Amino acid sequence: MRNVCIICEGHTEAEFVIRCMIEHLTKYNVNVHTQILQAPSGNHRGGRVTVERLARHMSHAYHSYDRITTLVDFYGFRDRNGRGKAEIETAILDAMQSRTTGFDPRFVLPYVQMYEFEGLLFSEIAAFAWVQDGWNQDVKAKLQKVRDAFNTPEDINDNPKTAPSKRILAIFGAGAYSKTEHGPLIAEVIGLEKIRSQCPAFDDWLGRLEAWGQS
């Protein structure tokens, strides 16, 4: 078994990995461990993502596992500075290499989810019914309208008002949708197969993790 560490942006992403990915990847000889991105002081966990902060955390974990990857949102990066997904992933790899002894890029896979984890949930609108306090046909229609406006769930744009999570919160109204409670549950109901069929970047990432266990 390959011991693979997935460094997650926050508790929601970590719970998604635990609920939806660990059992699946075990079939491919991948033993998944999760860590939540942590500040150097240890006083803050999750969010506040920068290339350097992520690379520093990855470097500390590098020698404890066979392989290491990430699950962080593109929307959450504080230092994008006009860079796209591929440029940020390359920058993470470069920053990690500069601070890690014995570094081998074959064993490291920075992955940035477009535009954020909640985009994956638009793979199947009916699964939002698990937000029982706010679910109705009007909410379903509004969520479906968002999904229909984009080629894939990963294309739902990042903007302070229209990022996937902001759309969900606005549609359901205050207090109905909980990111940490409902997000991983909805993803689990949808299932990896359906998410992979609609989210090509996520599908490619998961396929590369599967391949790690076969090599």
Task: Please tell me about this protein's structure.
- With 215 residues, the protein is α/β, with parallel strands linked by helices.
- It folds into two domains: 2-115 and 194-214, Rossmann fold (3-Layer(aba) Sandwich); 117-190.
- The chain is built from eight helices and five strands.
- Strands 1, 2, 3, 4 and 5 form a five-stranded parallel sheet that branches.
- Strand 1 (2-8), helix 1 and strand 2 form a beta-alpha-beta unit.
- Helix 1 (11-26) packs parallel to helix 6 (179-190), helix 2 (51-61) packs across helix 3 and helix 7 (192-198) crosses helix 8.
- The longest helix has 16 residues, at 11-26.
- The model has no long low-confidence stretch (mean pLDDT 93).
Assign the CATH topology of the largest domain.
Rossmann fold
Distance between the termini: 10 Å
Shape: globular
Give the structural class: alpha/beta
What's the CATH class label of the largest domain? Alpha Beta
> What is the total domain count?
2
Describe this protein with a few key phrases.
2 domains, Rossmann fold, 12% strand, 8 helices, alpha/beta, 215 residues, 5 strands, five-stranded parallel β-sheet, globular, 45% helix
Layout of helices and strands:
Layout lengths: L1 E7 L2 H16 L3 E7 L14 H11 L5 E7 L11 H15 L8 E2 L2 E2 L23 H12 L15 H9 L6 H12 L1 H7 L1 H15 L1
Summary of the model, kept short:
β3, α3 and β4 form a beta-alpha-beta unit.
